[in-house]
Amino acid sequence: MRKSFFFAVVSLGMLAYGRHCLRKAPEMRQAIDNLPEMSCEQLVRDGSGGHRYLVLTDAALTSGRSVGMRDSESGALELYHPIYAAGNAKQPPAVELKLILGVFDETDRRRLRDDRDQRQVHRQTGFSPIVIEVSTTADQLPDWAQEGLAKGYPGIVLSRCRVVTIGLDEPTEAHARHLQWRGLGLTALGVIMLGWCVWQIRVRDRRAAPAADSHSAGAPSRSPAGSAG
Q1: In the structure, what pLDDT confidence band is assigned to residue 229 with cuts at 50, 70 and 90?
Q2: Domain segments of the chain: what residues?
Q3: How many Cα atoms are found within 13 Å in the side-chain-facing hemisphere of 1?
Q4: Rounded to the nearest 5 degrees, what angle is found at the Cα of 57, between the Cα atoms of 150 and 124?
Q5: pLDDT tens figures, 19-33
Q6: In angstroms, rounded to a whole number, what is the distance separating the alpha carbons of residues 40 and 140?
Q7: Phi, psi at 19, each rounded to 5°
Q8: Under DSSP, is residue 84 helix (H, G, I), strand (E, B) or coil?
Q9: What's the CA gap between 59 and 166, in Å, rounded?
Q10: Average pLDDT of the chain?
């Protein structure tokens, strides 16, 4: 009984979260369509205009090394690399760098790498437009990241560098697809588990009924006591 009840609760939780994911997927796609677009120069000059997410249209990585750390147990990635406007004739000196890209997902890191390499084949610089989340300034990054950036880019002024990130919660088509498939999978699994729980309860009730009948049939009958005399 306890096992069936536990799995019933779990299945209802799956159904609720699956429904949430299926509702969020189209909302995320709509949010993608409404994202503002900005160049690196516009973002540095005007700020994000209060937008948490936006499309950065012309980012390019500097030629230096990235500063990163990966958790040995979970594999979680945290990587930082200065970026600049791809339209510049040449990479600006470190003191003029104003944007740092933070990458928190290995899949997104590979996607950016492959996109950059593909564009280089066609003699294009930088990345295709990317959806980013506007974060803090680089002087608020972990100490190891600040030390690595200062060492790799002598002269960089971290307090003047805005950090933009990918691989967290930014609305992208890939994230929307992931939400949709997660919702479908959890909904299907929840339905299967809930059906199994209902079946288990019915089987137990059918087994209990004959036992109750046999018990009542085998019990001695009591006839009313006769009157004396």
Answers
A1: very low
A2: 1-35+171-197, 36-170
A3: 2
A4: 85
A5: 888 877 787 777 778
A6: 20
A7: -65, -40
A8: strand
A9: 13
A10: 83
Span 195-224, pLDDT tens digits: 877 777 777 777 766 655 555 555 555 555
Cα separation values, 227 from 13, 17, 27, 51, 224, Å: 65, 71, 84, 96, 9
- Rounded Cα distance, 23 and 78, in Å: 30
Alpha carbon distance 145, 68 (integer Å) = 7
Q: How far apart are CA 168 and CA 108, in angstroms?
A: 10
Q: What tokens were used for 139?
A: 């002087």
| 31-111-103 Cα angle (round to 5) | 75
Say how far apart CA 229 and CA 225 lie, in whole Å.
Answer: 12
What residue has token string 């992931």?
Answer: 178
H helices of the chain, in order, are: 2-33, 40-46, 106-121, 143-152, 173-218
Instruction: Please count the residues of the chain.
Output: 229
pLDDT higher than 80, residue 18: yes
